[in-house]
Specification:
The protein is α+β, with helices and mostly antiparallel strands and about 190 residues long. Helices cover about 35% and strands about 25% of the residues. It is built from four helices and seven strands; from the N terminus they run ααβββαββββα. The protein has a seven-stranded antiparallel sheet, with helices on both faces.
Length: about 190
């Protein structure tokens, strides 16, 4: 009888710990979104092209730092729905290829202007991807590492206090931490 009470208490305790762990995991995606007082950014085509050129130059330096030893970093053209198209765009994306540990890696980077990314971290994890890790970025932002099995991608998304969201994705599993370094890089911003 006594042993049954001990086992019941132990199992109850484990169940409560499991529930507490589930609640803690769910709470990890709590990040206030959208932020208050977001200021939209509208730039001319020339301003966006200049910014894209700066992003590409920075990618050539940032990717070898994030992916130690990456070689032949080749940024693609930036654009919105198509490369080089900057018609009042509120986001820009490009692909980057490089060699890393003997294999070719393809990535995609997207920089969203303040207020353009509607999903909160919680909505993103509940509706769009399988999130594996969440953490504060040390700059007031919030980063999520995720996987989307439908397309075979892994990615890092960084929600920022000014309303921007930057993500970097790859089709190479196990690169999420490197992708997070890039997504958190404040050189990729619409607000400059």
């Amino acid at each position: 009888m006594r042993m049954r009470n001990v086992m019941t208490a132990a199992l109850t305790g484990l169940a409560l710990l499991g529930l507490a762990g589930t609640a803690a995991a769910a709470a990890q995606t709590d990040y206030p979104w959208p932020p208050k007082d977001v200021t939209p950014v509208h730039k001319t085509k020339a301003e966006l092209q200049k910014q894209a050129d700066g992003f590409s130059a920075h990618q050539k330096k940032a990717f070898p730092r994030a992916f130690h030893g990456a070689k032949d970093v080749a940024p693609g053209n930036w654009g919105g729905e198509a490369e080089g198209v900057f018609d009042d765009m509120q986001y820009m994306g490009n692909s980057v290829t490089f060699s890393y540990k003997g294999q070719k890696v393809n990535t995609y980077t997207q920089v969203n202007a303040p207020g353009m990314h509607e999903w909160s971290p919680k909505e993103y994890c509940e509706q769009h991807a399988k999130c594996s890790s969440t953490f504060r970025d040390g700059k007031g932002g919030f980063t999520i590492l995720a996987e989307d099995d439908r397309f075979g991608i892994v990615e890092a998304r960084n929600w920022r206090p000014n309303g921007e969201v930057v993500w970097v994705q790859s089709w190479t599993k196990g690169t999420e931490k490197q992708l997070a370094k890039l997504a958190e890089d404040r050189a990729f911003t619409f607000t400059k």
